[in-house]
Amino acid sequence: DVQMTQSPYNLAASPGESVSINCKASKSISKYLAWYQQKPGKANKLLIYDGSTLQSGIPSRFSGSGSGTDFTLTIRSLEPEDFGLYYCQQHNEYPFTFGSGTKLEIK
Amino acid sequence: EVQLVETGGGLVQPGRSLKLSCVASGFTFNNYWMSWTRQAPGKGLEWVASITNSGGSTYYPDSVKGRFTISRDNAQNTLYLQMNSLRSEDTATYYCTRERPRGLFDYWGQGVMVTVSS
């Protein structure tokens, strides 16, 4: 199975700042990496897929980059509603696997 | 608006069975693959099962293969997960997800809790 390693585990930032979350696959997954946001009481949301393609309806302050084994989610100009948990997931091969999550908190 | 509503969760003893349901609305159900994903308390996400739009093919990780069965009723816009031989490690919130092949979960339900304990 492809292991997905996310870093950092926790991240604290202020509204208006930019942050980056990293995700490393244990082997090449080409471009097939997705990012999800999880918030209490809300359905999980697909943000980015194929490494850098923005899901419909997601604000352009979210961006993804990378290929092969190393990927990054960047959020520019943080809004209050951006705080929560973020997960990466490889969608290159079965079984689909997720990273352990990054908690983005308000500083 | 896409809606996915899961039901059927609860407390079940180890070794017993439970069947989850998910009613879908807001999209043409029989055009889409569907999946189940779960999250143990305080843990990360784990893909559990996928089914093609026709129901003709299904996919599972080794952790549930042979114990869980995903199925669908396209006439009723309903997805199912039959869970047999349940173990304590199956305790989790189970999410119904719409899937864009392969492995892209673009809509999620709110989840239903399953607790396996004696």
Over all CA atoms, what is the radius of gyration of chain A? Answer: 13 Å
Instruction: Give the topology string of chain B: H per helix, E per strand.
Output: EEEEEEEEEEE
Terminal Cα span of chain A: 36 Å
How many DSSP helices of chain A?
Answer: 0
Along the chain, the helix and strand elements of chain A come as EEEEEEEEEEE
Mean pLDDT of chain A: 97
Radius of gyration of chain B from CA coordinates? 13 Å
Instruction: Give the class of chain A from helix and strand content and strand pairing.
Output: mainly beta
Main beta-sheet strand count, sense and barrel state of chain B: 7 strands, mixed
Strand coverage percent of chain A: over 45%
Describe the structure.
The complex is a heterodimer of chains A (107) and B (118). With 107 residues, chain A is mainly β. Chain A is built from no helices and eleven strands. In chain A, strands 2, 4, 5, 6, 9, 10 and 11 form a seven-stranded mixed β-sheet that branches. In chain A, strands 1-3-8-7 form a four-stranded antiparallel β-sheet, with no helix packed on it. In chain A, strand 9 and strand 10 (97-98) form a beta hairpin. Chain B has 118 residues and is an all-beta fold. Chain B has strands at 3-7, 10-12, 18-25, 33-39, 45-51, 58-59, 68-73, 78-83, 92-100, 104-108, 112-116. In chain B, strands 2, 4, 5, 6, 9, 10 and 11 form a seven-stranded mixed β-sheet that branches. A four-stranded antiparallel β-sheet of chain B has the order 1-3-8-7, with no helix packed on it. At the A-B interface, strand 5, strand 9 and strand 10 of A face strand 5 and strand 10 of B.
